[in-house]
Each structure stands twice: as structure tokens, then as C-alpha cells.
């Protein structure tokens, strides 16, 4: 199995892409089932292939592992170079697991252009894994941008009534940020004397003014993707209009690409600028944590509420990065993974309801527990996780971030901790209005509980939430060395 | 002493072959009438173009040599661009056949004009002398006027031809005036001697600046760059789509070549005079092209403005005046030609007799009518927008990098922001194809007979933009190798 030994990352990237192309070629709407089973086969196989990444990963080392390097565009020293460290491994696994979940979740829901739907998700899976593995600037940019194309189509073709607006807004917002990142990468290429090697960029000494500009260019790309206030406005639109699967991938993985970009590019390349700008970013993060949580409180639309809750939770992630403290940063990475599960799960839950009644309005529902007890169990569990209940993954991340922040600045921690109140308020209030209370809508009375497929989908995600919540040690262990090295690197001035 | 050997005719063998075979096509078409139009002259035309391409690459990477007593040069870049021109024209005619036949344009003259236009472009590409350059420009222009005006019953075609002719003649006059001033200043029309004079002639001399301004104006007009772009949308829109394809795709290679010959080989010593002019024209072209394209409802007009923006990007690569910039601009022109061939090819594949398919709305719901063509169009649109992993991305990347290396950071940032605006209208085409439902009367697009072959060719053409990515480095190497010793003899 030398192919898997030496080219595991390439296999993980290209296997689903090729699978997607085959699904696209094989299926039309008359053979929808072929497309479904093929897509499931490819996504499960990709997930299984990603398990060795976890089991064979050397936790003691902070170096890049599973490295592959091939010359690609030699005249510009652009290489096809891949590698993972403790920060990217969990994200790759999250991607493979959730793509599998999304394929199952879209099984019967998508009846129109089925093959194209599943192909888009498979191709996107490969491209997203590529983002998390790329160690070359241009390769990173290539995956980063190419991933927009399937997502654009997913929102635009299978989305809700206002899908066209949402898809174009999503694309253009992200593109503007990304292109500024490209300019920064081209600048770094020159500054480094002709290389796009991200790890070489890490070691590159840069003057203070240059660092600020480079950091801001990266910030433009990553802040849009995360998204941070004030460039977050595309997210509620995109989330609300996207089909369930699209929302899940957007919330669970796409947003993490922005956070990952900070860790892989912005922080190590421009550490002094990062320290200098940190107060502003912490301010924006706290604004997201508190203000956006309040915005979430008043939403009438469940998807919108979860979308705002995502922005608020991602504020925790950026807060954890920019206090430059080990526990906070590890907490932030755990929060990334946890939020991937929890927000994905909540979108799946909304999807379950939407498939039945075609409404996302909170007011439509009420008393769902009486007709869908199993579903109610799941949604209450995920809501608790979203509110950061101990024993769920949501708690671990938020607790570590607050703990780490507290050792740096008590006020930051105090403000961030407000989310435990507001977050609980908006999530539980939504659950109260949807799940509990009397049944007022006659259509709700006729709802059927989860079928086996939906149960399996939610069960997979729920186990993830529970395992990380109860026993986060393996996850922390994987990232420990890499986070330590990153913080040590960022602490040293490049000036 | 002028002997036949001193003319070095082998160096211009491709031009000789295409020109003489074009005359043969003209005769064949007159004397061999058959039931189907151009039954004999069409294959003969394709054979002519392919032999032109083969002869061009026969001596690839030989040392550069002058021919016809210094009127013409044959170097690596000339070989590659001539071959590209011949193959591009062949592609144009291949895509155009069905469409032109249905509109009664498919006559011997159409083929002959396109062949002579090709000779004109090849002359421009190989020019080592201002007169050769001018003759090439005019030969191409006259053929284009004729091809547009051939659609005699169309008022818009007549208007387009007239506009193109008058404005084109004006621009040629300006260009020629600039050349004559240059002759007065340097005493020579040979690009090499003009270039040698740069040591003696200071770049702040007013007559010189006047000469260069006029030459640049003429060039910008031929390119269709702002502020001399007015003719582009009207000509694109008014011409038959097959002719638009020819105008928009193939001459871009020759346009790059004349920029290279005139500004770099000839006026390279006075780069500070023309550099800023090109930079401003580049940014204005990208800005105006991208912004105005948004408001268009006809896809041909939209693509016309897209061409203006793309010529801005080509200039952006060129104006840095470095070897990297030239090879970026050359790659850009080649990628642009391949992309444009695909885009108009798809439009032509969607036309039927009596249906032009030139409104944006005609693309509505294409994914449901013909998913494969929609996918091809998707690739092409993302390539035009410069989204990776398409070839269009790498072309833009190189151009931006060259401009950044030359220190024009502000220009690059402006171009990048404007490219986002540009992405919008390409996305809108994707939106129409994928997000909207077809109009009730719209038919499924089916292909049979000749169209089937055309779709195969289109597939190769569009998919090439995507699958070239792993080998894009080799393409770049090839392009810069061909530019390694241009102009030297």
C-alpha cells in the first residue's frame, strides 16, 4: 500500500473529485438512485481513507506529516506540496465525516438534478481537503477559490426563493477578499526571493509596515470567510437560501477555512502585525459574540437564527486566536470542530422540519415533541450543545477559550462569558417555541417522526458532539504540539 | 546585390504557402461549382491553414533570421504565433460552417477573405519594418471589413462595416502619421535601426513624444482598448456571429505581436514615454469593459466589453516592459484566443436557422436543455473570470505578477478590484444557465450530423482550459522560450 503511505493526502483530495466527476457522468434524473449510491460509496470510502490520517499521525511532532512535494510550475517555484499538522488533521476528518452525512441527508430530499447535486458535494469535499493540506501559496489559493464554484452552484440551483441573490453575494464577497490575499501571496513570493512555500513564508523577515499590509490582505480574505463583523452579511443570506446540505457544509467547514487561514498564513507570516492589530480583532470578536448573539435572539427564521449563532460562535474562535494563549488557542480549534458538528446538526434538524412542512419560520411550529419525540430529543441535545452545556463539545471549546482569555485579560473573558447567557437564551427560546408548548398548527399534528435514514444521520453527528464533550483528550493531544509551536513562533518578533 | 538567396524566402514560407493557396482556393471556388457550397474549397482552406501552421513550426527555435532584406523576421515568437493564428482561423471556420451555411454566408469569398486576413496577421507577426507592419494591419483590416459587409441584407452588418471602416481608416492614418514622424526623426523605417537611434534621441524630445503618442493611439485602436474602444461593441454586435468569432479570437495574437514589435523591438529605448500611457489605458479598459458589460442584454455586446477588459489585462502584462511581462502577455493572448473560440463556438452551436441565440436570455435554463454544453460554458465563463483552476486564472496570475514585479502595486490592486466587478457578469451567464428555468418555448438542444462533430471539438476546446492546469508550467516555459530571442538577428 505504498500509494496510501506516500500519497494519502493526494488520494484524499482527488478520490472524491474523480468520484464526483464519475457521478456526474453516470447519473441523470432517470438513474437518480445510481447517483445516490455512487455518491454514498465515494463519500464513505473517502471517510474510511481518512482514518489512517488520524491513526498514523505522530502526535509528538509539530512538523508537517504525510508530506508530498512535486514540482508543478518550475519557473515560479510553484510546487504541488501537501502536508498536515495537528491543526489540519481534525479539520480533514471533519470534512470527510460531514460530507458523508450530507450525502445521506440529501438522499430523498433532492429530487431534481440529483447527480449534479451529489457530484458538487463530492468535488467540493476534495477541494476543501485540499485547502487544509496545501503548503504552497498558489495551490492553497487554487483550492480556496475553486471551492467557490460548487458552493455557488449548490446555493443557486437547489436553494430557496432568494437563492440567486444569495449565491452571487456569497461569491463576490469571497472573491474580493481572496483576490487581495492573492496580491499578498504574490508580494510574498517576491519578498522571499521566488518561492510560494508557505512554511518558508513563516520564516520570512518582514518590516512592520509590510507586515501590516500583508496581514490586512489576509484579513480581508479570512474575515469574510469566517465571517467576522462587519463583513458577515453574506452569511445569513447564504445560509437561509442554501439547501440543507449546503448550509451544513458552509457552517461546518467553509467557515473553518477562514479560521484555518489565520492559523496557517496570517498569524505565522505577520506575527507582529497580528499582535498590533489584535486589540481590534478581539474587539470585533467580542462584538460578534455579544451583539450578533442579540441579533440571533430576535430572528423569526430558524436558519437565520442558527446562521447568526454561527457568527457569534466563530467570534469565540477568533478571540481564542488573538489572545495568544495556549489554552485559548486549543479551545478555539476545539470550538472550530465542535461548531462544525453542532451547527451542522442544527441545520440538519431544521432540514428535517423543512422537508415536512416547507417552512423555516419558528412560528409555524410548536409542540413538535408530541408528534416527533425522537427528533425532539436530538434537537434539544444539539441546542444544549450550542448553548455550551458541559458534557457536550460546545462546552469544551468555549470553556477553554474563556479560561485562556481570563489569564490574559479578565474583562475580555467577562464579556465573552456573556454568550453563555445570551447563547442559551436564543437557542433554548427557539427550542421552546418549536419543540414544546401546545400544537397550534394542525399540520404539525400530522408530522411523522424521524425515519431510519434521518435517525442515522443525526446519530452520527450526535456521537461526535458527545465524544468530544466527554473525552476531548485525543483531540487536544493531536493538536497540542502544533499549537505550541505556532504560539512559540508567533511570540517571536520578525522585526 | 539582390539575389534570390539573399531574400531568404524559406523564412517566409508559411506566408507564401497560405497566400498562394488562398489564390488557389479562389480559383477552385470559381471553377468547381457543386451542389453543396464550398464542398471542395472548405477542405482545401483547412488544408491551407494546417500547412501554414506546419511550415511555421518546421524551424521552431532556429536562430532568428531576417528575410526580404530586413522587411520580415522569423524568430521563435513569430513561429509560435503564426502557427497559433493558422490553427485559430481553422478553428473559427470549423465552428462557423453550419451557421454561415444557414445564413448564406458560406461562399468561397468568405473563406478567401479569412485566408488573406490570416496572411495579414502573419505579416504583422513577422514584421521587422514599419511598412511591413502597416501592410499587415491593413490587409487584415480590409478582409475584416469585407467579411462583415458580406451580409448584405443586414442593416446592422452594413452599419458595423461602415463604422469599422471609417474609424479603422482614421486610426490607420494616425498610426501612419506617427510612423512617418518616426522616420523623420530616425531616418529609417526598419525597427532595428529605429531602435538603434534611441541612444542618440532623448526621450523628452517633443516630436518623438508626438510620434509615439500617435503610434500608441493607433495600436490601442486596433486592440480596442479604452479610450479607443467605441467600435468594438457595435462591430461585434452587428457582424454575423461567425465573423464576430473571427474578429474577436484570432487577431489578438497578432495584436500582441505588433505591440511587441513596435513598442519593444522598435521603441523599447523610450519605454518611459509609452509605459504610463499603456498603464492608464490598461486600467481604464479593465474598468470600463467590466462595468459596462454588466448592463448588456446581448451576449455579443457583453463579450465585446469583456474583450475590452481583457485587452486591458493584456496591456497590464505588456507595459512592465520586462521579459516576464511579455511572456505573461503572450500567454494571456493565447489563452484568450482559445477561450474566445470556445465561447463563440458554444453560441454558434446553439444557433439554428432563423435563431441567432445572441441574447443573454437565450442561455436561460441551458442546464436543463443540454447539460453538457452548459458545463462547457460554465468552464469557459469561470476561465474568463479568472477563477482557478482554469487556464484563465494562470494567465491573469502571470500578468498581475509581472505588473507587481515592475512595481505597479496600485495598478494591480485596482485591476484586482475591477476583476471582482467583472466576475459578476460572467456569473450571471452561469446563473441564467443553471439557476433559471428555460422559457416555455425553448427547445432541447440536440446535435446531429455536423453539429455533433462541432460539439466534440468544443468539448476538447473548453475542457482543455481545465485539464491543462497540471501542465501549465510547461506551457509557460514554452511561451517564454519562444520569446527568448525575439527581434535579435
Would you spell out the secondary-structure blueprint of this structure?
The complex is a heterodimer of chains A (495) and B (489).
Chain A: H1 2-26, H2 32-55, E1 65-73, E2 78-84, H3 88-105, H4 114-133, H5 137-146, H6 148-158, H7 163-191, H8 198-203, H9 208-225, H10 234-241, H11 244-269, H12 271-297, H13 302-322, H14 326-357, H15 368-371, H16 373-386, H17 393-408, H18 410-435, H19 442-445, H20 452-470, H21 473-491
Chain B: H1 4-7, H2 13-31, H3 41-58, E1 65-67, E2 72-74, H4 76-102, H5 108-125, H6 130-149, H7 155-186, H8 191-196, H9 206-223, H10 231-238, H11 241-249, H12 251-266, H13 271-294, H14 299-318, H15 323-350, H16 366-369, H17 371-385, H18 391-405, H19 409-434, H20 450-467, H21 472-482
Antiparallel strand pairs in B: 1-2
Task: Describe what this molecule looks like in 3D.
- The complex is a heterodimer of chains A (495) and B (489).
- Chain A has 495 residues and is mainly α.
- Helices cover 76% and strands 3% of the residues of chain A.
- In chain A, 61% of the residues are buried.
- Chain B is 73% helix and 1% strand.
- Chain B is built from 21 helices and 2 strands.
- The two termini of chain B are 20 Å apart.
- Chain B has a two-stranded antiparallel sheet with strand order 1-2.
- Chain B has 489 residues and is mostly helical.
- Chain B has one domain (4-482).
- The interface between A and B is large, with 37 and 34 residues.
Query: Based on DSSP secondary structure assignment, what is the total number of beta strands of chain B?
Result: 2
* Low-confidence blocks of residues of chain A: none
Order of helices and strands of chain A: HHEEHHHHHHHHHHHHHHHHHHH
Shape of chain A: globular
* 3D shape of chain B: globular
**DSSP summary, beta strand count of chain A:** 2
Instruction: Give unreliable regions of chain B as ranges.
Output: none
Distance from first to last alpha carbon of chain A: 46 Å
The largest pleated sheet of chain A is described as:
2 strands, antiparallel
Gyration radius of chain A, rounded: 21 Å
The greatest interface here is:
A-B, 37 and 34 residues
**Total DSSP helices of chain A:** 21
Radius of gyration of chain B: 22 Å
**β-sheet strand percentage of chain B:** under 5%
How is the quaternary structure best described? heterodimer
Q: Can you count the helices of chain B?
A: 21
Roughly how much helix do the residues of chain B carry, as a percent range?
Answer: over 70%
Strand content of chain A: under 5%
Structural class of chain A: mainly alpha
Overall average residue pLDDT of chain A: 89
Tell me the distance between the termini of chain B.
20 Å
